[in-house]
Amino acid sequence: MKALIIENSRLYRQLLDNILGQQGFENDITDEISVAKDHLHNNEYDIICLNENLKDGSGMELISYCKNHPQLKHMPILLFSSDDDIQDKYDLEVEGIIYKHNLQQISDQIINFLETRLDPLFSEGRILLIEDSDSLAQLILGALQTTGYRVEHFFSADKAWEDFIDEVSYGSDQQAYDLVITDINVEGELNGLQLTHLIRNLEDARGFIPIIAITAQTDAELRLSLYQAGISDFIPKPILIDEMLVRVSNLITNKRLLDKVHDQRRELYNLATTDKLTGCHNRHSLMDFSQKFISQAIRHHYPICILVIDLDHFKAINDTHGHATGDDVLQATGQLLNSSFREGDMVARFGGEEFVVLLNHCAQSDGLLIAEKFRADLEALKPVNLTVTASIGLTWLESNQQHDFEALFAAADKGVYEAKENGRNQVRQVSP
Ligand SMILES: [Mg+2]
C-alpha cells in the first residue's frame, strides 16, 4: 500500500512516516503542493495525509484540486489540523480529520482510520431492504448499490423474514446480512415493528443485527415503540439519501468492528484450546471439558466410551526418520482423528504421540467397533509412506455407573499398556 504525506512540520513528517511504515505503507513525503501534485500524477495512493498549512499554500487548495480531478477524486484524504473549527469553516470533502492536539493519540487515530475507512470490508456489506413503494425502493436500492452495498429488496416483511431466517450465516461471513432497513407499513401480514421483534427475539448472533426503521409516520409513540422493539436508528420519510448513506455506513462500521472483536475472541479461544500441530483439542481443553462431558452422561444416564490412542514405535520413527517426519506422522494422524469421529465427540492430543477420544452416547460394543475401525484406517493411512499403527485402550461408562475422568483415563491407559505388551496395533478393553 502507498501513502502520500504532505506535511510542513518535520516532526509530523517523521511521525506519520513511522506510523504508516509500521502499517505496511510505502510513503512519499513532501511539504510542497507543487511536488505533491507531481507525485499524485505519477502514483496511485491508498491514502493522502495532508496538513492544513503547507510551504507553498493551503491544504484546502490541494483538497479541492484532488476532488475535482477525475483520476484523483477517489483517493482518500486524511486531513491534519490544529483548528477545532475547521469543519465549520470549510465544506471539507475529506475522509477523515485528525486534530493535532495530542501527539500520543495521533497513532491510535490513524490506525483506527486505516482499519475502518481503508479496509474495504468496512465500506461494503449485505443489506436487507423492506419497502413496499417501488419508486422509493428503487431510489434507496440505487443509492446503496452505487455506494457498493449488496442489497436484497422485499416488498413484504413476511418474505423478508423467511429469507432472513434461511440465511444462517452471521458475523463477518460474506453471506451474512449486516443491516436491515425496514419500512413500517408494508405488504403482507407482518409490519416493520413486528419484524423487528422477531429479529430481536432470535437467540443467535443474527438477533443483534442493526435495524433502521423508515416511515412517514413520525409520531413520538410509534418512534418509542420502535426503539423499545430494538431498532438501532430511525429515518423519517421523505428520506434524505446522503444522510441515510452516512447512517448506514456508521451502523455497518460499528457492526464490522463488533464482528472483528468476535472473530478475534474466537481465534484466541481456538489458539488457547487447540493443539497447533494436529488441529486436535489440546490437553488443557480436554481437562476442562472431560469432567463436564462425564457428569453430563451420568446426570442423563447415557453411556460413553473413552479411547486412549498411542502410536507404536514413535520414538523409532523420530530417531530413524527425524523429527520433521515425526511431525508429519502426528499431523496426518491428527487429520484422520478429526475426520473419524462424530459431532459431539471430542478428540484431543494428550501429549507427544498420545491422543484421547471421548465418545458421546456410545455403548462399549459400539466403542469397540469404532476403535477397531480407527486402528485399521490408521494402519492403511501410510503417512509419508510409513506404516503407522497404534495401540488403543478402550474403557466405558455404563449409563448407571459413576467414575471420574481420572479413573476412566487410567483404565483406558492400562488398555494401551496391555496392547503394547501383546504386540501393539490392537485394541484392548479395560473396564473402569
Ligand atoms: Mg410502506
Task: Please provide a written account of the structure.
The protein is of the alpha/beta class and 432 residues long. It has three domains: 2-118, Rossmann fold (3-Layer(aba) Sandwich), CATH 3.40.50; 122-270, Rossmann fold (3-Layer(aba) Sandwich); 283-429, 2-Layer Sandwich (Alpha-Beta Plaits), CATH 3.30.70. Helix content is 48%, strand content 19%. The chain is built from 15 helices and 17 strands. A five-stranded parallel beta sheet has the order 2-1-3-6-7, sandwiched between helices. The chain has a five-stranded parallel beta sheet with strand order 9-8-10-11-12, with helices on both faces. The chain has a five-stranded mixed beta sheet with strand order 14-15-13-16-17, with helices on both faces. The longest helix has 33 residues, at 241-273. The model has no long low-confidence stretch (mean pLDDT 92). Bound molecules: magnesium ion.
According to DSSP, the number of beta strands is: 17
Determine the CATH superfamily of the largest domain: Response regulator
Q: What proportion strand?
A: 15-25%
The largest pleated sheet is described as: 5 strands, parallel
Task: Supply the number of structural domains.
Answer: 3
Note the quaternary state here. single chain
Q: What is the overall silhouette?
A: flat
Query: What structural class do helix, strand and pairing data support?
Result: alpha/beta
End-to-end CA span: 61 Å
Query: Which cofactor or ligand species appear?
Result: magnesium ion
**Architecture of the largest domain in CATH?**
3-Layer(aba) Sandwich
Strand order of the main beta sheet, please?
2-1-3-6-7
CATH topology of the largest domain: Rossmann fold
